[in-house]
């Protein structure tokens, strides 16, 4: 027996994401996953513990020299990350 109220799975998922306000969080997760693509493999190798909280990206670096370089590139990185996300997700970057 076939049901007449069938819906596309993509529509159901979209509705679920909107109802539970998960869109921004999913974008943040995608942004963290694309960190290596944005900064390159060498920088990504020396960074860890990426997390986003209230528009602030926290990045832990194992190299003090690299941390200094990243601080100088902060605005450029912020622009690249927001471009990757397609919206202004990152307002500030803090390197530790």
Fold and architecture overview:
The chain has 96 residues and is of the alpha+beta class. It has a single domain, classed as GMP Synthetase, Chain A, domain 3, CATH 3.30.300. It has six helices and three strands. It has helices at 9-19, 23-33, 35-39, 41-45, 64-72, 74-85; strands spanning 47-53, 56-61, 92-95. Strands 1-2-3 form a three-stranded mixed beta sheet. Helix 2 crosses helix 6. It is elongated. The chain starts with 8 loop residues before the first helix and ends with a strand. The mean pLDDT is 88.
Unreliable segments (pLDDT under 50, ≥5 consecutive)? none
Helical segment count = 6
| Alpha-beta classification | alpha+beta
Q: Helical proportion?
A: 55-70%
Any idea of the CATH class?
A: Alpha Beta
Number of domains: 1
Shape: elongated
Strands across the major sheet, in which order? 1-2-3
Mean residue pLDDT: 88
Keywords:
single chain, 6 helices, 18% strand, 3 strands, three-stranded mixed sheet, 96 residues, elongated, alpha+beta, GMP Synthetase, Chain A, domain 3
Topology of this protein?
Elements (H helix, E strand, L loop, with lengths): L8 H11 L3 H11 L1 H5 L1 H5 L1 E7 L2 E6 L2 H9 L1 H12 L6 E4 L1
Parallel strand pairs: 2-3
Antiparallel strand pairs: 1-2
Helix pairs in contact: 2-6
What's a concise summary of this model?
With 96 residues, this protein is of the alpha+beta class.
């Amino acid at each position: 027996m076939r049901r007449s109220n069938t819906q596309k799975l993509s529509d159901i998922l979209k509705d679920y994401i909107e109802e539970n306000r998960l869109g921004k969080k999913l974008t943040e997760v995608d942004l963290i996953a694309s960190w290596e693509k944005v900064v390159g493999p060498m920088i990504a190798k020396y960074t860890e513990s990426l997390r986003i909280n209230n528009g602030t990206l926290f990045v832990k670096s194992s190299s003090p020299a690299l941390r200094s370089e990243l601080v100088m590139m902060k605005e450029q990185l912020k622009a690249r990350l927001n471009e990757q996300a397609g919206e202004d997700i990152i307002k500030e970057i803090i390197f530790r």
